[in-house]
């Protein structure tokens, strides 16, 4: 087939090659593409027999795994190799790589798994979706358990991949400090710990609350069907880089951002480094729990202050609870819908109905 491609290349003029090899060769190679095999009834029966609920839980666990693993792997590079005299310090001496790792990890998680489970990947988002968007409450505990399990498995895999380096760092920490559980220690690869000077829990609470509220607000705005500035293609990267921005801005001051991302790896940290993983400076309750009220605060602010449900209806993504009659009654009472150019127009007129 390589010889055939060479012959086809010889037949192409220079102007055709300038538009791109893929575009220029497409008409020559498509006839060599083997068509996909037909879908068998056996495969359809197998897929139909899979419990939908189980697929959703597995997708949540897989998505969190894909999000957490590259992030904590970047932290491992930052922590383990940052003090390695054989590696240039400048390569590992900043949080840029960590922010990008979490950003792309979250983006890949959404791209690969959100179509199956909805892509919550965060207990705080699952609870917020149950409060505001009608997500079934009976599914909430199962989603949260799946998310924590995915993060737990990511931490276990990371420990398996980096165990020689982490164990050596742990031994050095024990020799120098008597513990490996502190910010910059071996345990901090898996979860965050405050700096030794951060003894004010009110400060740590406020910082975590604001970071998590910021992320919740960005995510909720991306989920708004009336938001014209995001598309399904851009949402994964918008959310991913919102996380990266918080890592770049606040990770040096200790943040968690996600109950599942923290609780799962913290259990692994307790396995390898002892119960101090949960008790160090009495910080773990902040890193595990604060994301939930912070995200509820952010989503409540968006729903009560920012949300424009009439725009959602006009874009065809929702309907009035009383149907057309209820919508007409609302428009009559309010004097119609104020269009983007300042003119009054009904929702039906805006939609071209």
From TrEMBL:
<feature type="compositionally biased region" description="Basic and acidic residues">
    <location>
        <begin position="342"/>
        <end position="353"/>
    </location>
</feature>
<dbReference type="InterPro" id="IPR050363">
    <property type="entry name" value="MIP/Aquaporin"/>
</dbReference>
<feature type="transmembrane region" description="Helical">
    <location>
        <begin position="172"/>
        <end position="191"/>
    </location>
</feature>
<comment type="similarity">
    <text>Belongs to the MIP/aquaporin (TC 1.A.8) family.</text>
</comment>
<dbReference type="InterPro" id="IPR023271">
    <property type="entry name" value="Aquaporin-like"/>
</dbReference>
<feature type="transmembrane region" description="Helical">
    <location>
        <begin position="100"/>
        <end position="121"/>
    </location>
</feature>
<protein>
    <submittedName>
        <fullName>Aquaporin-like protein</fullName>
    </submittedName>
</protein>
<feature type="transmembrane region" description="Helical">
    <location>
        <begin position="57"/>
        <end position="80"/>
    </location>
</feature>
<dbReference type="GO" id="GO:0015250">
    <property type="term" value="F:water channel activity"/>
</dbReference>
<feature type="transmembrane region" description="Helical">
    <location>
        <begin position="203"/>
        <end position="223"/>
    </location>
</feature>
<feature type="transmembrane region" description="Helical">
    <location>
        <begin position="229"/>
        <end position="251"/>
    </location>
</feature>
<keyword id="KW-0472">Membrane</keyword>
<dbReference type="Pfam" id="PF00230">
    <property type="entry name" value="MIP"/>
</dbReference>
<keyword id="KW-0812">Transmembrane</keyword>
<dbReference type="GO" id="GO:0015254">
    <property type="term" value="F:glycerol channel activity"/>
</dbReference>
<dbReference type="InterPro" id="IPR022357">
    <property type="entry name" value="MIP_CS"/>
</dbReference>
<feature type="transmembrane region" description="Helical">
    <location>
        <begin position="286"/>
        <end position="305"/>
    </location>
</feature>
<dbReference type="InterPro" id="IPR000425">
    <property type="entry name" value="MIP"/>
</dbReference>
<keyword id="KW-1133">Transmembrane helix</keyword>
<keyword id="KW-0813">Transport</keyword>
<feature type="region of interest" description="Disordered">
    <location>
        <begin position="321"/>
        <end position="353"/>
    </location>
</feature>
<feature type="transmembrane region" description="Helical">
    <location>
        <begin position="142"/>
        <end position="166"/>
    </location>
</feature>
<dbReference type="GO" id="GO:0005886">
    <property type="term" value="C:plasma membrane"/>
</dbReference>
